[in-house]
Amino acid sequence: MSEPSHTDHRPQVSRRTALRAGGGLALGVGLTALASAAPASAAQRGTPLCDEPGDSAAAQGVGSSDLGIPYYREHDGTWGYVFGDTWSQMQQYGDYLGSPVMLCQSGFDASGATPISFTWAMPTGGRAGQLFDYRTNADNGFGFEVSRIPNDCIEFGGRTYIQYTSVGTWEPPAGYDGSVMSGVAYSDDHGVTWRDYPYHWAGDIQGVNQSMYGMWSFAGIDPDGWLYIFSKRWNGTHRNTADGGAIQLFRIWPDDFRAGNFGAQQNWAYLDGRWQWTAAAPPSPILTGNNIGEFSVKRIGGRYCMSYFDVTDYSICTRTASRPDAVWSAPKPQIVGDNRWPTSHWGKPQVPSLYGGYIHPGSASPTSLTLLVSQWPGVLHQPPYRVLQFDGINP
Asked: Which residue range or ranges hold the DUF4185 domain (predicted)?
């Protein structure tokens, strides 16, 4: 793929510090037919999915973790959830299991009447473990890697894909993103074994700082046949001073993607005085502004919905558009770190030290989304380090 030219509210305890201590696509086509509209009275409003005594994650060997990126397992109609750095016991105690880690669910209740409950773990169907075959806190041939953090997952045509970022340091100098590279791993046995495509997008440690291919979100395969993908710079620290909130858009035929023919992408670019799909120029930023961390884009009920962690506003915001390449609505804060200020946060659900904010592709409707929001403890081995479920979000 072509490479374009080259107020943090979150607590300052880094994940790298935690690692040292602990380690001693959903397609979006037709998925809303699986769910009914969510009554507001039944909605989950911050239900913890891990790091709680006796929860379903613990039954699968997961104590504390984050992200919980949901995807539709189209081969059998079930659901997968991909987590980042994971520990076997609550409060980041026990064994460090690695990243990424996957838990699965036989059926998702989009009405919000019952929270997500995990029914088995990958990669073996037994206790949860790291999906990818690499060593954390080691050089695996690309440079020193702390861990590989998943950004999104999608399954189509019998193959499952995870796009990830390899983290070289959680504490880079100002203006640097601290990533080693980003890549796409795939599984042909529905998540049991994984291989990497040979092409990787170089990151900061490899000399390409602020690559716009650092973090991806698979919006899904549109009825027009294209796989639409949004991407942005890696911002794992949430203090990336050069981030600027830029997000770009490209698309690729699913067969080309499966073959690893990533150079076949078409880019949504402003060229010759107009926006157009082209292979003659890199993608142009479609959104800019506040510092943006993790993000998610999914096609829900025929409409494209976006959520992201707005680091500057200290909130999970949402936007919508009729098409991936259409004009997006204004950002709307939904879940906030502090609901006392500014006034746009008044009355919003409050989650201190929040981040993430992934759209469930089985959400009830484009006006009733399920979001999975992460919460960071700020102090090592102090609760919580977990994922929370919010239903009935109207973007």
From this structure: 53-390
pLDDT for the residue 381: 65
Q: Is residue 6 very low, low, confident or very high in pLDDT (cuts 50, 70, 90)?
A: very low
Q: Is residue 186 part of a domain?
A: yes
How many beta carbons lie within 10 A of that of residue 121, not counting itself? 21
Residue 37's SS3 state is: coil
The domain total for the chain is 1
| H-state helical runs in the chain | 15-22, 56-59, 254-258
The CATH number covering residue 236 comes to 2.115.10.20
Distance separating alpha carbons of residues 205 and 209, to the nearest angstrom? 8
* The pTM of the whole model exceeds 0.85: yes
How far apart CA 181 and CA 207 sit, in angstroms, is 10
Neighbours of 245 (CB within 10 A): 21
What are the Cα distances from residue 200, in Å, to 86, 145, 196, 205, 236?
24, 14, 9, 13, 18
Print the domain residue range for 194: 15-393
Calculate the CA dihedral of residues 9, 47, 87, 215 and round it to 10 degrees.
Answer: -50
Q: Is residue 5 part of a domain?
A: no
Q: Could you give the 3-state DSSP secondary structure of residue 283? A: coil
Residue 4 lies in a domain: no
What does the block give as tokens for 15? 């994940």
- How far apart CA 392 and CA 395 sit, in angstroms, is 10
Judged by average pLDDT, the poorest of 249-258, 358-367, 378-387 is 378-387
Q: What is the mean pLDDT of the chain?
A: 89
Is 235 part of a structural domain of the chain? Answer: yes
The H-or-E segment that residue 274 falls in is strand 274-278
DSSP calls for 328-390: PPPPEEEEES-TTSSGGGTTS-B-TTEEEEEEPTT-SBTTBEEEEEEE--SSTT-S--EEEEE
Answer yes or no: are the C-beta atoms of 267 and 280 closer than 8 Å.
no
- Token readout for 302 is 């025929």
